[in-house]
Amino acid sequence: MEQEGATKPAKKLGTKMLPSVRTTETMKNVGKLAFRPDSFTIRQIMQQLGLSYGTVRQINARSLAGKKRCKTKTHHLSDKQVAQRVLKVPSLLEHIKRVNSDFYVKHVLKPLFKKNIPEFYGKQAKSVALHHDSAAAHTALTTVWFLQNNNYRFIPAADWSNSPDLSPMDYSINRILRDVCGNIRPKILLV
Fold first, then answer.
1. Are both 117 and 58 inside the same structural domain?
2. Residue 14 within a domain
3. Which domain holds residue 41?
4. Tens of pLDDT along 37-59?
5. Exposure class string for 30-52: b at 16+ Cβ within 10 A, else e
6. 3-class secondary-structure state, position 36
7. What domain of life does the UniProt record list for this protein's source (predicted)?
8. Which pLDDT belongs to residue 67?
């Protein structure tokens, strides 16, 4: 083909043969954006400088020695939301103060054991054991007496543990429930 005058197409270089994007100038620019008091996120840095996500991560990990952790997205409240919370928090705190052991037994435990547990567990309802945390209403003598007098199974405070291996409800079931029910909006709000 070469003798007849046809030329070979130019050989395409692989990405490994291209010059590195991580130049000293690029690293300085990433460092400036990352070390500001109101530092940019990785996505903001990549959009600002026209770099890929991986390049910004590599510069942060290797060149900046991982000294700067780019901030994650957080929820910011608008001024209107802040004003609403300032107005509504005192009334919420008043509602929370009402939750003493008598309120807890009457409005939470009784309906739970009479209606919810039999509905969820059916024939196995008697084998369900209640696992509390250390909230004042949960540890009050009135609550413990109610559970003991009605022969409901519960884990006493002396047997509680903060270990994720020994407290599966806090670390396992809540995650599963959140994953399963996360996108479901409640039709009735129980207060």
1. no
2. no
3. 20-63
4. 777 888 888 888 888 888 888 88
5. bbebbeeeeebebebbbeebebe
6. coil
7. Eukaryota
8. 62
